[in-house]
Each structure stands twice: as structure tokens, then as C-alpha cells.
Amino acid sequence: MRVLVTRPEPAASATAVALAGLGHAALLAPLLVTAPRRWVVPAHGPQALLVTSANAVRHGGEALLAYRALPVYAVGSTTAVALRAAGFGDVCDGGGDVAAALATADAAGISTLLHLAGADRTRAQLPAGMTVDVRIVYAARRARTLPDAARIALAAGEIDVVLLYSARSAQVFAALADRAGVARGALHVAALSAKVAAAAGNGWRHVSIAATPNEAALFAAAGLVCDKG
Question: Residues in domain Tetrapyrrole biosynthesis uroporphyrinogen III synthase (predicted)?
């Protein structure tokens, strides 16, 4: 199958490698470009970190590395892998759910967290008695047009499925596809969650939603994984 991958780099290239391992061809169309933001380390040290994107690890800078001795609650597996690669040893993977990561931290007795986040961060209800100090360490800029290769392939009906990883990228893809004159009714889109699918809007030929918010489940929902059972 030929798959359009809309997530930012370098994650898009990592997804392309994973798809190639499954026998699929990826066409990359990153719809968001991330860049670092200057941030100030809080005066009072937290008990642990909350990291909701691997981009925060990429753009956190030297200040982030000073916290490597602390436990870290990562929202998803990609973020957890990035943290371990950066030298963090005590990393808990929240399975793609911010609320679950916070609940795990609460159960461990953590009451003060430093959240390293993007400008368009995910918000969640905090457990009673927990405080979270948010620092914006990166921002994402929207693409203004679809890459030419993606636009041509979509118009020619050469894309079997479009992978959507975030609500923001889903909104951008829908808007740019409409602007390019791509027929929604000809496309199968696969979304990381129901929220992402809702952000993409209506009118698609088929919408698949991952059972859990991680890439393996997204691949399965999109029909990219063969059932060997």
C-alpha cells in the first residue's frame, strides 16, 4: 500500500522506515514544522517531569538534560524512546494518554510536575493536590500548501490511506486537501484517536480510528498490519 504520512520530521521518516518494514511505501507530507522556544527553568525543582511530545526532548536544550535524574512521565512510546535516548533512566510510558500519565504519577506520590510542552499543548484535569508548572519549549508552524508530490499523488488516486497523528495536523490536512481540490470522498484517512478524526471533519470515503493512541494501533486500524493468526 502507498501511505501518506502527515506527522512532522524526524518522526515522519521513522514512520516511513516502520512502514517499509511492513512492505508499504510512504510518501512524506509533514504538515507542521517545529522550532525551539526559549524557556526559563523554574526556581523550585519539581519531583518529576511530564513530557507530552518527543519534540520537547528535541527542543528542550541543555536545561532539559539537568533533569535526567528525575522520573519522567511520557505520554506515549515515541516520547519515551526519545527520553531514554537522551539519557533519562526512569521513564514511564503513559500509553498515549495524558490523564493516564498523570494518574500514574499521582499513584507514585508525585505532587509537583514540570511539564515540558509545545505551544499547542494537550490539557487534562489534574488529580487533587497536584500542581504542574508548564514550560513551552517548542512551537509548531503550519504548512501553507501540500508538498507537490503529495498533491499530485492524491489527485491521481495513488494514496491508499492518509495517517493523521494530531488534531492540529488533521485540521491542516483537511484544509489543504480542500484547497488543492482533492476529493474527500476518494480518501481513506486513519486517525490516532477519535479527537483527531473529529478534527479532520466529515466527507471522507472511510475513517479508521486507532483502538489506542499509539502508532502500532494506528497501523492496525489503517489495515497496514497483516493478521497472521
Answer: 14-219
